[in-house]
Task: inverse folding
């Protein structure tokens, strides 16, 4: 009997060892599945973070470009209000010059020369700041740059040609600051 018991015991031990190894294999397989799930979750999270990073990076670049564009516009047109006011000063200097232009008094002629010099210097400063005069006399009427105050017939002139300029027009960096007030030919 002892031989039989000894023979049986190893088989039972083998069966028990086999059962444990099956459980261990199943447990290890479950852990591997969990590990694969974790890897997939990590990859998915990584992709989400990458997408968010690229989105934020693109937004930052767009914001930088928008800021640069706005800054450029401010530098280009920020002095528009001041220059508009200063145009009125130039107009007054021109009116003063027109009023004393034909005076024969020597002192008045000297004043005319002085006012003309100041006006030219003033206009040069405005030009240096981006202001430019709109050419009107002899040009074809353009409603983008001219404001027609009247129409009148004129011989030897083309239709819609500007023949009189009552008030000069100005542009600031290509944008009309004040349109020229003109009289246009209508035959």
Result:
């Amino acid at each position: 009997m002892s031989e039989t018991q000894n023979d049986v015991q190893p088989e039972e031990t083998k069966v028990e060892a086999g059962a444990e190894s099956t459980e261990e294999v199943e447990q290890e397989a479950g852990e591997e599945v969990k590990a694969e799930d974790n890897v997939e979750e990590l990859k998915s999270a990584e992709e989400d973070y990458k997408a968010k990073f690229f989105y934020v990076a693109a937004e930052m670049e767009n914001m930088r470009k928008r800021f640069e564009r706005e800054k450029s516009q401010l530098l280009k047109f920020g002095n528009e209000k001041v220059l508009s006011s200063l145009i009125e000063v130039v107009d007054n200097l021109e009116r003063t010059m027109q009023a004393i232009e034909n005076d024969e008094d020597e002192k008045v002629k000297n004043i005319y020369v002085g006012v003309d010099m100041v006006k030219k210097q003033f206009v040069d400063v405005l030009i240096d700041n981006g202001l430019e005069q709109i050419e009107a006399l002899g040009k074809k009427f353009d409603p983008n740059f001219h404001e027609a105050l009247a129409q009148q017939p004129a011989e030897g002139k083309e239709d819609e040609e500007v023949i009189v300029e009552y008030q000069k027009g100005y542009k600031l960096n290509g944008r009309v600051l004040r349109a020229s007030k003109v009289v246009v030919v209508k035959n």
Remarks:
- Residues 56 and 152 are 62 Å apart (CA to CA).
- The two ends are 141 Å apart (CA to CA).
- The helical segments are 2-77, 80-100, 106-128.
